[in-house]
Amino acid sequence: MGARPPHHFSIFHQFNVSFPIVGWTAVLFTLPETKALTLEELDFVFSVPTTRHAKYQLKNAIWHVRRYVLFQRNLKPLPPLYEIEDLVST
Hints:
Blueprint: H1 7-30, H2 39-45, H3 50-69
């Protein structure tokens, strides 16, 4: 055995690196944030279609790249995907 690892190791390593990246991307675009929400708010959040949520997350990712990587400081913030404050009725 030489200084280089066997060929099958490098192919195995490429697959092991790519699966978490694909999984993280799928979670980012398909699962909404549900931290500290009540059951009524969760019902409202999950009523938004997944395609609409994915489009919003893509726009949000592009906005963050433009703002923090390309340093475009004069960008308007994105409007929220849903207004949970409107749900509360007292």
